[in-house]
From TrEMBL:
Domain Pyridine nucleotide-disulphide oxidoreductase dimerisation: 315-423
Cofactor note: Binds 1 FAD per subunit.
Further remarks about this protein from its record: The active site is a redox-active disulfide bond.
Name under which the protein is recorded: Dihydrolipoyl dehydrogenase
Residues holding NAD(+): 148-155, 171, 240
Native organism: Zancudomyces culisetae (Gut fungus)
Enzymatic class: oxidoreductase
One GO biological process term: 2-oxoglutarate metabolic process
Reactions catalysed according to its record: N(6)-[(R)-dihydrolipoyl]-L-lysyl-[protein] + NAD(+) = N(6)-[(R)-lipoyl]-L-lysyl-[protein] + NADH + H(+)
Amino acid sequence: MRETLGGTCLNVGCIPSKALLNSSHLYHTAKHDMEKFGIEVSDVKLNHQKLMAQKEKSVSALCNGIQYLFKKNKIDWVKGKGTFLNQNEIQVALNNGESTTVKGKNIIIATGSVPTDIPGFEIDEKQIVTSTGALSLEKVPEKMIVIGAGVIGLELGSVWSRLGSKVTAVEFLPEIGAGMDAELAKNFKRIMTKQGIAFKMGTKVTSLKKVDGKVIVETEAVKGGKKDTLEADVVLVSIGRRPYTDGLGLENAGVQVNQRGQVEKNDHFETNVKHIKVIGDVTTGPMLAHKAEDEGVAAVEYITNGFGHVNYDVIPSVIYTHPEVAWVGKNEQQLKDENIKYKIGSFPFSANSRAKTVDDAEGMVKVLVDAETDRILGVHIIGSNAGEMIGECGLAMEYGGSSEDIARTCHAHPTLSEALKEACMAAYSSALHV
Ligand code: NAI
């Protein structure tokens, strides 16, 4: 097993990808966008090795931070791969080749997820890569094909596109963003297209072959079956992740998984074996680090105090592209499906003074509220700071807040968060600045 703590998020997920998103954004800005601010830069060059080294530095600093927290909190780290022997004992094949057994009165399964594999798509993490390989490519590929325009495809597609790759995303569904509000998905696709990413929607990949240093990608339209052949230097397979329980020996403990391979839980995070609890990507719910963290805290609270709390209706999602996309609560389709009457308040960043000042005014805020009570049911944002702005929306929803509550809260001027206030004003009466 991995020699460092922190799981997928820290080692090969959220953290290294955000480092690359930041540096690729800086590079792209320096190369293409500085002149409009009256700053003339010339001879902007990419030092690939340094770019990767900065990413690795941020990962190792945070990994060491967790190691420090383990020590501080007197947590033993048994380095190896664990397998249930029975309902209280785990055998660990240690990384150093030896073996040991640990016992627990309470056990929490938090084994996470791994990329979904498609039979016949042979991942080598060099030319045909998952997110792991896409975080460590040795050079900028001339042409990259991304299979799946979900969160990983959009984030890592953006990284390599900004660094100079010609990126094409092939997506099975008619819209990008894996569950994003349809209006935002449409807007966001337009923005990504303008940034240079090409999309082949409603299309599936039928085969991948490596020929003469290239990858030949055969595709087929979902409707009508029209076939096409594409060629790339690197193909990123980002079609979702699956719960990881390989070799965990769940059967030895009598812990059940559902048809999707998820270890199911009840409200107290208990599996079907009461003292074995489960949290994170390996169980039901969105595969997000912050959801896993909240579940971890709550599961431990159940063990120590007998109660804990995670509000699954208020878990934010963020895509860390530029602009970012962030949302919390329900989207329009979900409200329609549930027959909930709602009102919409929206506000474009093109009318927000701060966004105009910094010439970064792509995107909008859209607030969905209960038509009768004005309670906020969902907020959807495309904007350069959307991931930070969504925190205020989650807090308001956690307290059962209404659009009037946010609209009557004084927001500093000039800030991007005034766009949220204006969208809320639009939902409950009318916006000031449109
Ligand atoms: P995803 O579920 O976000 O997107 C997968 C996309 O691939 C979907 O749009 C799907 O329609 C498409 N797809 C599936 N099979 C396909 C095929 N054969 N051909 C073409 N398209 C196909 O999954 P992704 O991007 O791999 O991410 C995995 C998980 O990691 C997600 O649960 C995501 O939430 C999480 N994640 C979250 C991040 C964040 O919060 N910023 C960053 C990265 C990952």
